[in-house]
From TrEMBL:
<keyword id="KW-0808">Transferase</keyword>
<feature type="domain" description="Methyltransferase">
    <location>
        <begin position="42"/>
        <end position="136"/>
    </location>
</feature>
<dbReference type="GO" id="GO:0008168">
    <property type="term" value="F:methyltransferase activity"/>
</dbReference>
<keyword id="KW-0489">Methyltransferase</keyword>
<dbReference type="GO" id="GO:0032259">
    <property type="term" value="P:methylation"/>
</dbReference>
<protein>
    <submittedName>
        <fullName>Methyltransferase domain-containing protein</fullName>
    </submittedName>
</protein>
<dbReference type="Pfam" id="PF13649">
    <property type="entry name" value="Methyltransf_25"/>
</dbReference>
<dbReference type="InterPro" id="IPR041698">
    <property type="entry name" value="Methyltransf_25"/>
</dbReference>
<dbReference type="InterPro" id="IPR029063">
    <property type="entry name" value="SAM-dependent_MTases_sf"/>
</dbReference>
């Protein structure tokens, strides 16, 4: 089984595939001024198994288009949405975030948690803006340096993994350059990484390895996740997920 299939298998039965939390998604909703008082078209891009899409569907008068390129995650999302009574408010789309098949100005809100790095922050926010109505809101979380300096080993690690990692002021400047007005920013607290993402993942390691006969490839997947977790435990005060809320003010 190839690496992507193994990663998909490790994560497909999880409630979320990256750091986050319901309280923090609600905080972002408040900053974006989203309330159930008007019907909304929302795209959740890189939705995974639907942590945000399902919450948005439950709490707002919204139709959510949940986009991910992995059909296995979308299958799980539909099943979770069904059991939580919001299946009729969510449509899934198996497509790539860099070629979204939607009309210009179709969405009131573009939401994306922990996923925009797959195409890069600047490419994502600039490409997706055409999908937003004038005055529409963008809510996106992005790996961010939490201060101006950090130890060389964590700098080197992230420059290898994601060279676009930067401080919040640089990300906000990108938003401004691409036709957005910044409306809010906050950092996901530590428990969004540890209690909501890493601990549940660690609890899945044993069954995952057994399912794959403890193959070299499966063990390599687990080792890579353990390295990421150890990195966060050692250096997590230097980086985090920034949540950026911005309004489309471009033409
Ligand atoms: C770190 S996970 C975050 C998932 C979810 N938003 C969450 O917070 O639980 C990133 C997601 O982006 C999806 N993804 C990666 N590359 C993609 C692409 N090119 N197009 C669409 N989805 C993509 C992955 O399948 C995965 O579900």
């Amino acid at each position: 089984m190839d690496h992507l299939r193994l990663l998909t298998d490790l994560h497909r039965h999880a409630a979320r595939q990256g750091p986050g939390g319901e309280a923090e998604s609600r905080q972002a909703m408040r900053l974006a001024g989203l309330a159930p008082s008007r019907p909304l078209e929302i795209a959740d891009i890189g939705c995974g198994t639907g942590a945000a899409a399902i919450l948005l569907a439950k709490e707002l008068d919204a139709h959510v288009t949940a986009v991910d390129f992995l059909p296995e995650f979308l299958d799980e999302l539909r099943s979770r949405a069904h059991s939580q009574g919001v299946a009729d408010k969510i449509t899934t789309c198996a497509c790539s975030m860099d070629a979204l098949p939607f009309a210009d100005a179709y969405f009131d809100v573009i939401w994306s948690e922990g996923a925009i790095y797959n195409m890069g922050f600047e490419a994502g926010v600039s490409t997706w803006r055409r999908l937003l109505k004038p005055g529409g809101m963008l809510v996106v979380s992005e790996i961010t340096w939490l201060g101006a300096t950090r130890p060389p080993e964590i700098q080197a690690h992230w420059e290898g993994e994601y060279p676009q990692i930067d401080v919040a002021s640089a990300k906000i400047a990108i938003l401004e350059r691409h036709g957005y007005s910044p409306w809010g920013y906050f950092v996901l607290p530590r428990h969004c990484w540890t209690e909501h993402y890493y601990r549940p993942m660690q609890r899945r390691f044993h069954a995952f390895l057994e399912r794959h006969g403890r193959s070299d490839a499966a063990r390599a997947v687990v080792e890579a996740e353990k390295t990421e977790i150890a990195m966060y435990e050692t250096h997590g005060e230097h980086y985090g997920y920034g949540v950026y809320v911005a309004k489309n003010i471009g033409r």
